Amino acid sequence: NQHRLYYNFLLTWLPSRRPVALLFAGASVWRLIWRSQSRAQGLQTSFSPPTYFAPLSPLSHSLPLCGLPYSLPYEGPDRLLSRGRRMEGYDAKFDPPLEKRLECPICLLAQREPMQTPCGHRFCSACILRALRETGPRCPVDNTTVCVHQLFKDNFAKREVLSLNVHCSADQCGCSWQGELRDLQVCTTYYMCMCQQ
Fold it and tell me: Which residues form the signal peptide (predicted)?
């Protein structure tokens, strides 16, 4: 169901992950409505998938407070969903080897943008969102019921992963660089080493 796909997508990109309503006006223009905590008014945005979101505009009627003090990213759902499919974990040469607890149980790589389930399991954000979308609302590890709005970003785990020591993975360039994962950049288009040397 395409409506459900876009609805789940939008839930993941809203910081509160609790929109008030997602209205479908025909097949082309959709409207997302929520209440902003930082502004004393309702806000809305309309968009035509897969194009960009329209600017935010005030609503004329009040909505229940859902605690969203942020605006939406101005990228179309199709574009971001497509980008998300490529965002598996980090495939790097870790030294020392990657600990199991920092490995995504789905892609078996270091967790990228880790998200945690209510049952305590961590996954790459793209991996868990894809799993929930394709196999239903179940944790891939213990089969516990998990809904998208129950996931939360694990910033502590993210900082831990990005601070891990790695070697340059672009062997073709003969680079001997090593340092924190956050400083490693590999150009996947030309397979050239771009690791700040």
Answer: none
Which ranges in the chain belong to alpha helices (H)? 2-13, 77-85, 125-135, 155-162
DSSP state of 29: E
Is residue 130 over pLDDT 80? yes
Assess whether 55 and 116 both reside in one domain: no
Lowest mean pLDDT among 46-55, 100-109, 148-157: 46-55
Sign of the dihedral defined by the CA atoms of residues 26, 84, 42, 54, in that order: negative
Query: What are the φ/ψ torsions at residue 43 (nearest 5 degrees)?
Result: -130, 155
In this structure, are 189 and 97 located in the same domain?
yes
How many Å apart are CA 149 and CA 8, to the nearest integer?
A: 8
- pTM value is 0.52
CATH number of the domain to which 158 belongs: 3.30.40.10
Structural contact between residues 118 and 141, judged by C-beta atoms closer than 8 angstroms: no
